[in-house]
Amino acid sequence: MQKSLTRFSWQSLVQPWQSVDWFLFGLAVGLTAFAGLIVRSTQLEQDYTDWWQHWLTGGVGVILALSIARWRYEVLMQWKWIIYGITNLSLLAVIFVGTTALGAQRWISIGGFHVQPSEFAKLGVIITLAALLEARTAASLPVVLQTLAITAVPWGLVFLQPDLGTSLVFGAITVGMLYWGNANPGWLVLLVSPLVSAILFGTVFPAWFVWVAGVGVLAWLTIPGRWIGASVAIGINLLSGKLGEVFWNLLKPYQKDRIILFLDPDRDPLGGGYHLIQSRIAIGAGEFWGRGLGHGTQTQGGFIPEQHTDFIFSAVGEELGFVGAMAVVLVFWLICLRLVAIAQNAKDNFGSLLAIGVLSMLVFQAIVNISMTIGLAPVTGIPLPWMSYGRSALLTNFIAIGLVESVANHRQRLKF
After folding, report:
1. 94 domain-assigned
2. Phi and psi, residue 144, nearest 5°
3. Which of 191, 221, 350, 351 has the most CB atoms in a 10 Å sphere around its CB?
4. d(CA 291, CA 315)
5. What distance in Å separates the CA atoms of residue 380 and residue 382, rounded to the nearest whole number?
C-alpha cells in the first residue's frame, strides 16, 4: 500500500512534464551553472556579484522554462499578431525612452533593471513566423516575400538602435525557418546574394563578376518568369556595390572599425583591434589543458574587455584550454541534435518550426561568438547562449527552451 501511494504521488508530481526532453534541459542548466564559475573566475580581483546574479537569473529562467513546458504551445498561434505587435512596440519604445550605453540605445529601465527588448524580440519573430508558415508553406514565392516583409519591421527597428549583431540573428532565424518551411534553397541563396555581392565588389572584383553571372543563372532556373527574374536578380547584384556603400555609411564608426580590423587587428593594436588580439593571446596561452580556474594571466590581468559577457569563451580557452573549449562546443552540438530531433518528432508544423527557429537562433549566436573570439569573425556583440552574462539574453534562451520543451511534452504519444 505504501509503495502504491509513493508511486502515485511521484507520478502525479512529474506527469505535467512526463515527455520533456530532460537531457536537453540539463545541458542548458549545466552551461548556465558552468558559466557562473567562469564569470567568477574572471572577477577574482574585483568584488563583483555578476557570477551569483547569473545563477539567480538562471534560476528564474529554469522556473519560466518548466512553466512554459506545461502549457500547450498551440495556443500561441491565436496570439501571433498580438505577440508581433508587442514585439514591435517594445522595440519602438527603445527609440524614445531607451537607455544609451556602449554607443547604442538598446535598453529600457524598468524598476531599476535594464531590459533589452531586442533579445525577447527574437522569440516574438520566431513565434510569428512559425504561425505564418504553419498556415502556408514557403514553397511559393509570395509566402517568402510576406515572411521577409514581416521580419523587416522588427529587423529595421533593431538595426536603428543600432544593434548590428542582433539584426544578423533575425536574418539567420528567417533563413532557417524558410528552409524548414519548404522554401526553394535557390531562393535563399538569392536572398543573401546582394550582401555577398557587396563584399566581393570591394574585395575581389573578378569573383564578384562570376558571382553575378551565377546569380543570374540561379534566378533563371528557380524564379517563375525566368527572364524577368534573372534580369531583376542581376540588376540588384550589379547595384550591390553602391548598395554596399550606402549600407556602410549607415554603420557607426565603431562598427566600421570592427569589420575592418577583423582582417588585420594589428593595424590598431591599442584601439579597435585590441579585443581580438588579447582574445587570441588568451586562447593560445591555454594550450591543451589550460592554466586552471583563476590562474589565467590574460583573464586575471583584465586584459580582455567584456570577458564575462561577449568574450567569455576566451576565459574558457585560457583557463581550461583546448579540452575545456571543445567540451563547450560539444555541449552546443548536443543541444542542436536534440532540437533537430524535437523538430522532426513534433506533432504539427507549428511546433516543428518553433524548434527550428530556436535552433537557428542558438546556432548562429554560438558560431559567431566563438568565431569572433578566435579571430574568424568580426566583433559583433553577439552573446554566447547561457554563458555570457546578461539577464535579458539568459532569460530569452530559457524561454526559448521552454517553448521547445512544450513541443516535446505535447507531441503525440503511442497508445497500445
Report:
1. yes
2. -60, -45
3. 351
4. 10
5. 6
User: Alpha carbon of 323 to those of 287, 292, 295: distances in Å?
Assistant: 9, 12, 16
Burial classification of residue 400, based on how many CB atoms lie within 10 Å of its CB (0-12 exposed, 13-18 middle, 19 or more buried)? buried
First-to-final CA distance of the chain: 27
Q: What are 249's three cell numbers? A: 555609411
**Among all chains, which residue has been given the C-alpha cell 530559457?**
398
* Tally of domains in the chain: 1
Instruction: Give φ, ψ of 98 to 5 degrees.
Output: -75, 160
Domain presence at residue 415 = no
For the record, the C-alpha cell of 96 comes out as 524614445
> CA–CA separation, 165 vs 169, rounded Å?
7
All three cell numbers of 409: 511534452
Give per-residue pLDDT as tens, 242-270. 666 666 666 666 666 666 666 667 666 66
pLDDT of residue 165: 85
Residue 324: name the closest of 31, 23, 13 by CA: 31
* C-beta of residue 188 within 8 angstroms of C-beta of residue 143: no
- Domain containing residue 203: 50-409
A 10 A CB-CB count for 183 gives 22
- Going from the C-alpha of 410 to that of each of 71, 213, 405, the distances in angstroms are 9, 48, 8
The band of 8, judged by pLDDT with boundaries at 50, 70 and 90, is: very low
Q: Pinpoint the alpha helices (H) of 43-140.
A: 50-70, 80-97, 117-135
What is the predicted pLDDT for the residue at 254?
Answer: 65
Task: Tell me the pTM.
Answer: 0.90
User: In which element (H, E) is residue 169 found?
Assistant: helix 164-180
Q: Residue 374: CB partners within 8 Å, gap ≥ 6?
A: 279, 280, 283, 317
* 3-state SS class at 293: coil
Phi, psi for residue 270 in degrees, rounded to 5: -105, 0
Residue 43 lies in a domain: no
Could you tell me if residue 334 is inside a domain?
yes
Between CA 252 and CA 19 the distance in angstroms is 47
State the cell numbers at 34.
558552468
Instruction: Give CA–CA dist 339/404, Å, rounded.
Output: 8
Q: Label residue 297 by pLDDT band (50, 70, 90).
A: confident
Q: Which of 278, 289, 370 is nearest to 330 (CA)?
A: 370
